[in-house]
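Risk register update: the risk of archive-format incompatibility is retired. Evidence:
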Amino acid sequence: MLRNTKLNYGLIAIASHWLSAVVVIGLFAVGVWMVELTYYSAWYKTAPHWHKSVGILLLVVTLFRLVWRLVNPKPAPEQNHQKWEKISAHIAHGAIYLLLLVIMDAGILISTAEGRGIMVFDWFELPGLTPLIENQADIAGDIHQYAAYSLIALVLLHALGALKHHFIDKDSTLLKMIKFNRG
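Archived output:
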């Protein structure tokens, strides 16, 4: 079953969720490691190229996920969920998507601050933008960094919430994002 139902997530939602989770955590780890590289490191040019390329592909996946959410039903929350849990989950999911878009837009603004495009794995080039503001790379860099740390904190909270539902509440919230109904 590719599409969501009122009871379960479909394979596309599940696969894109977990792909995004792995990529976000990986990009964060690489980003933290990358800023410590020196000019003489063998990874000085390669790591940023991969980071940007994967980030652009994640932007495509994120935009796809947002569209997919609009055209698919969302499985109903468990009946035992409290109102505050439903509201918190809604806010957290919205904040995760917002932070993802802010991080990726800021990354594009960093990389194109001098008018150069972004090569994505030598497959295609995202065209460069004319600098929009003075000190664009520095300002966008700060936004990129703080939004990334905020996103990771929110992802951890999201994961803890899923584990709480699974181990404490013993409901199927986490299972809906792990198993898909084959129809």
